[in-house]
Write a structure and sequence with these properties.
eight-stranded antiparallel barrel; 49% strand; 8 strands; 1 helix
């Protein structure tokens, strides 16, 4: 190759490398930049950690079954994690929950579904519990109310019991 061609190839390689580098750097958060999670002016979204209380009720009669406290974490990208334990029930009888969420029309409406696995006292898998939830974020963006349909399933994934629930939550701010 002659000198002009070598210079042109080298210049194109440098421009390509710089373009790729700029693209990669701009797609990542820049260290030191304030995180929206730490900002006082957070976007009104469910993304974050929430203290939650779920009151389960008999769907036909409305009779309260129990109230369970827990934590829900909504991650960017539409996944969620949850953990709760009913009073008087060993936490070893259930795993943590994992699910998906999405924003519905309007800034404050969401739907989510999650599942967790259930075990007996000796650790044997006994089935799962699934919840389908319609959630409404409050005007401040720091509280929610919801309605849920809950299915308890056996180890063969057959529905053995259904109930309804009214989850309510407040954003955890690290206090």
């Amino acid at each position: 190759m002659n000198f002009k061609k070598q210079t042109l190839v080298l210049a194109l390689a440098v421009i390509t490398a710089l373009s790729i580098t700029v693209s990669i750097v701009s797609s990542h958060n820049i260290p030191g930049k304030e995180s929206p999670a730490l900002s006082d002016e957070h976007e009104k979204t469910i993304i974050g950690v929430w203290r939650m209380a779920l009151t389960t009720v008999n769907c036909q009669t409305g009779d309260v079954i129990r109230t369970v406290r827990g934590l829900w974490t909504f991650h960017e990208g539409g996944t969620m994690s949850e953990y709760a334990s009913a009073p008087g029930v060993s936490p070893s009888l259930r795993g943590s929950g994992h699910g998906v969420w999405q924003r519905e029309p309007g800034w404050q409406h969401y739907s989510l579904t999650f599942i967790f696995y259930r075990y007996d006292a000796s650790g044997v898998f006994t089935g799962s519990q699934r919840a389908r939830i319609a959630l409404t974020l409050g005007a401040s963006g720091d509280e929610f109310t919801a309605h849920s349909a809950i299915e308890i399933r056996d180890a063969n994934d057959n529905v053995t019991l259904t109930s309804c629930g009214t989850p309510a939550g407040t954003r955890f701010g690290g206090e």
